[in-house]
Specification:
This protein is an alpha/beta fold and 281 residues long. 42% of the residues lie in helices and 16% in strands. The protein is built from twelve helices and ten strands. The chain has a five-stranded parallel sheet, with helices on both faces. A five-stranded mixed sheet has the order 6-7-10-8-9, sandwiched between helices. A hairpin with a 7-residue loop joins strand 8 (185-190) and strand 9 (198-203). Helix 7 (170-181) runs antiparallel to helix 8 (204-213). The chain binds S-adenosylmethionine.
Length: 281
């Protein structure tokens, strides 16, 4: 008890599918604050009822954040304590909160973030991919130009790339990642913390073949292996053709390994490189 101080903003994560993941501290803070700012008040009311919390809720979401952030900050400056939460997981992470945090900082308001559920990190730790170095992307931009620019920047990054995606766009996004990054290892972490939690670990091409026969359902985190050590920026790569490069490398290592390495670097299907080398050697 007495978790909460007046004039403070609390960032409170909520479960991403399993109510038992609500922390004892999150419950205390929600019980004790003066106001809870929720992304969807109806959604959060259900959570609060489950934990027998009866509290004033105000709405703070993508579409009213410009109006609401200054109002929430004014309430905090007048001495109120406010907890902000989104529908699920960590506020701010692909969810509302960033504007409020910035404005609170500008107004010297203390911010207390609570640790708790988050889909990206939950997926990463069980993915088997590099968890020492990783980049969180979240949802890719919808505008094609912005999306291409971003993928170009991240295509040469080492370390795991973490994306969020809605099930109805999963196939389109995996196809875009395959075209842009080559046939890399992917992990599809589905329905984390829920009854049908599954991890599919395979190549992007295999994930795409699988989606030809299975309709994606539920929530997904997509994790893609980072660029290999030998990756070069596009501009440098263009000085010789990939075929020439492949033949050179095949003098020093098995063609299976050349195909794997170059698929990542050149954003080409591994099979295409392998077949080319089989024919030429
Ligand atoms: N703030 C949240 C967090 O901390 O993870 C993320 C919210 S974002 C609007 C929703 C996206 O997160 C989903 O489209 C999905 O990609 C991912 N996600 C959320 N819950 C998930 C779950 N239980 N299993 C897999 N992915 C999940």
């Amino acid at each position: 008890m007495n978790e909460v101080k007046s004039g403070t903003l609390y960032l409170v994560p909520t479960p991403i599918g399993n109510l038992s993941d609500m922390t004892a501290r999150a419950i205390s803070v929600l019980q004790e604050v003066d106001i809870i700012a929720a992304e969807d008040t109806r959604h959060t009311s259900i959570l609060l009822r489950h934990f027998d919390i009866h509290k004033e809720l105000i709405s703070y979401h993508e579409h009213n954040k410009k109006d609401m952030a200054p109002k929430i900050v004014a309430a905090i400056l007048s001495g109120k304590s406010v907890a902000q939460c989104s529908d699920a997981g960590m506020p701010v992470i692909s969810d509302p909160g960033a504007d409020l945090v910035k404005l609170a900082i500008e107004n010297d308001i203390p911010i207390v973030p609570l640790p708790g559920p988050n889909a990206a990190l939950t997926a990463l730790v069980a993915s088997g991919l590099d968890a020492r170095l990783f980049t969180f992307i979240g949802f890719l931009p919808k505008i094609t130009g912005k999306k291409k620019k971003l993928i170009e920047t991240i295509s040469i990054m080492p370390g795991t790339l973490i994306f969020y995606e809605a099930p109805h766009r999963l196939k389109e996004t995996l196809s875009f990642l395959f075209q842009s990054l080559g046939d890399r290892q992917v992990v599809l972490a589905r329905e984390l913390t829920k009854k049908f939690e599954t991890f599919r670990r395979c190549l992007l091409s295999e994930a795409l073949s699988h989606l030809e026969v299975e309709t994606p359902r539920g929530e997904y985190v997509i994790l893609v292996e980072g660029a290999g050590e030998n990756v070069k920026p596009m501009a440098e790569r263009d000085t010789i053709s990939w075929q020439e490069d492949a033949l050179r490398r095949a003098k020093e290592m098995p063609i299976k390994d050349v195909a794997r390495q170059m698929a990542v670097e050149y954003h080409l299907p591994r099979r295409e490189i392998y077949q080319f080398l089989l024919k030429e050697k």
